[in-house]
Specification:
Chain lengths: 342, 354, 320
Amino acid sequence: MAEALMEVRDLVKEFPIHGGVLGRPVGAVHAVDGVSFDVLRGETLGIVGESGCGKTTTARLLLRLLEPTSGSVAFEGRDIATLSRRELKPLRREMQMIFQDPYSSLNPRKTIGSIIAEPFVVHGVERDASARKRHVQELMDLVGLNPEHYNRYPHEFSGGQRQRIGVARAIALKPKLIVADEPVSALDVSIQAQILNLLRSLQRDLDLTLVLIAHDLSVVRHMCDRVAVMYLGKVVEVGDAAELYARPRHPYTGALLSAVPVADPRLARAARRQILTGEVPSPSSPPPGCRFHTRCPKFVAGHCDVDEPLLTDGDPAHPGHLAACHYPLGDDEGAATARPAA
Amino acid sequence: MAPLLSVENLSVSFDTDDGVVHAVDGVSFQLEAGAVLGVVGESGSGKSVSSLTLLGLTRSARTTVTGRASFDGEDLLAAPEERLRRLRGNDVAMIFQDPLSALHPFYRVGAQLSEAVLAHRDVSKQEARDRAVEMLGLVGIADAKRRLDSYPHELSGGTRQRVMIAMALMNDPKLLIADEPTTALDVTVQAQILELLARLRDELGMAMVIVTHDLGVVASIADEVAVMYAGRIVERASTETIFDAPEHPYTWGLLGSMPRLDALDGADLVPIPGRPPSLIARPGGCHFHPRCPYVREAHKVVDPELVAVEDDPAHAVRCLLPSATRRRVWQELRAGVAPERARTDVIEAEEGER
Amino acid sequence: MTAYIVRRLAWIVVLLALVSALTFVVFYVVPSTDPAQLRAGRNPSPDLVESIRHTYGLDKSKPAQYADFLERAVLHGDLGYSYGHDEPVRQLIFDRLPATIYLTLGAVIVWLAVAIPVGLISAIRRHSIFDRLAMGIALLAISAPVYWLGLVCLYLFSKDIGQFPIFLGSGTYVPPTTDFGTFFGSMIMPWFVLAASFAAFYARLLRSNVLEVMSEDYIRTARAKGVRERIVIRRHVMRSAMTPLVTVLGLDIGVLLGGAILAETVFNIPGIGRLSYEAIQNGDLPVIQGTVLLGAFFIVFLNLVVDIVYAYLDPRIRYS
């Protein structure tokens, strides 16, 4: 089994809510509430969930762009949450991020050449300006941009091209890990496909480990080896992608898969849809016990609203497929909501 | 029976500082009462502008609209503003993509709902409120009376979109135009809203035009699909046909670009190369030709017409390749062959035969 | 919300204390006439000056003087005794405040009455002749300094010295209770002169707000509902476009209530502005303290009022 590049244990991030006469914290938004998982070297791990599940916060915590309230994030065995800024800086070369919005993640006042070159400058690599320029142009070529556009500004490019610039910037220092936060959500479908293919080929060629945050389950299915499903700040299911999509064990995963619109009219009308009722509760006052119990079709009163289920193994034939549920879906229940393999 | 909505050669262009933007170019389609049409396209395809123009919402000094569009026998494009105003929100209703920005942030939901009725009917405020409660119930909002006093930002995304739908239904419209109704919503909520729309179609017999970029959305609810590119309809067919036997390279490209839950493991997506064209300086001939893997010299110059396919009058395609060729290419693509190889296999083989 | 208001009021007290301390310090750093000398009148004997100095506590150390001032102000509401005028400061302020209030309120009414229609019409008929003309004049009005405009108006229209004597000129102010007609007549030019630059600014502001709001999605929804355009503008557009104006209005009123120095001086209106100007000229510290504190109070208080009103107008704003 591959070794873990990152180990996340009991990660918690709370955002305080202030109130009262003195403005003291009166409550908190539990954005990430005790999350543990591994990122294996060389794999693509997908983190999926809907709004308010905490996946974007988790992404930022992985790179320590936010300070965790508690818990640990270990990169190659070292807990990055406890490192000083000086110790952290060289580690930043090893982990990079691609952002969601190609329109706001690039500084409009810098040429794309200098945007892509910035990682070199910050870390003191390639001090010779002309060598740096050549390196940047190689990167541009690698991501499918015309190297002659080195001196152009972001606004002269389309959304898809800007995202390519973001990718070039992220791979500049040959990091070991890239966290991509919804890298294609803001793009048209045909452009999405281009960027996804680019990420896949780069991952193969540069031996990258990729953490892909997305809300689109089809995208995650296409790109990822393993998938973690988040709901209201917790990981509710994690496992091998093919296995999880074929035999989901957590009812929320089942509902998510069932909800994805299928581009096949016969299947769309025939599939037994598991439509969830209600909406996601507020992260500042999560339900007691299992957080999903307010919408769960398998809810059992007295158990699910009292005891919080932990991530556990179910089927010995599939180790590593964990679900946090007292009454996980059986093989037949999950399969009905999944899609037949082509 | 005459169709409820009939659009013939609709063209819309905007006069901007950068030049004339040909947003919509000769779009034609028909919609029967109670039927659902899906209009699919990416940004810049003209899908939203077409539907906004039908309601006269793009009228301005710098906009030129030509062609014909009639609703229930009445000419929409030539109608005076007051006549159109009376149709809007009344016989023809529209809902938009982002319910948070589409509702006024300063007014309570109840007031905005009541306004939809009061704009067209002479009823009391209380009667309007009662109707609002009734509609909120119809769209599945619990505790409707209390919700009337909420502000839009206090509601969740799914509830807000239901409110928008309720607002559109206040006056029993015959036609509902939904512009990207599920794009801004979470997946599970999307499913709820699509299910709601299907239910409304069945219960109310309402015709719908669903404008979206997501082929999955139209698969579940539309009877007929029109695919738009660069302001034109490039293919139009029943939903089954669009997915089973599409005959336009752009439609193939859209289908190939979409990651699917039931796809082959490990297969790369087949994206469409290049980017959508500028609507000011459109490519000559077939507008799709710069991105088409099967382009030939003639396609750069000759403008294709939307022509019905031989054995299926409901299936029309705007492409210069012969139908038989297209079908052969689609068979190859469906079997997983890459477009470049499909091109050599089919098209160049044909040219060799001559 | 109550907790928020209590917090803000507490801050106001702290702020006022800071302001008074700062004024105190500045006054003593900046050289000016010796107040005792001033009070003593012409050719005073050194003994007289000395005894006056003692009466006013000017021979004590500065911190002690400040402590005295605070004690009197907080416990007795006594802001001291003016060096220049022969009255307690509080009385002076009460006497002069009404004129400033009338001037401010009148100007506000004038500038809103002009700015709102002009801003709205300019936005709706963007690029029309009306729009271009209105915005051009607005630019001029913003650029014209109050004192210049005031003097020009006096020169043109004042009854005593003007080329076209229509309005009552400078120095004709009487309180409204004395003679309402004269009061009103004397305030017409001051109101318009003071309102001019504000009207221009607000018209431009409203115009840009309206243009921005017109392109919002919810306006498109209102039209799609079939709402009449008149109502769309009145109920949907204006409600959103006017709300930011409230913030600016509150702050402007706050500043003006502290004394429109230039307007009051040009038109010789006995308000707070004139009072503070004279006090600074004469080194009359207690009066300066008083007017500065008054000005500061109006500004921070109006600030709080504006925030509360804004929360009422925009339901998305909630102070926890």
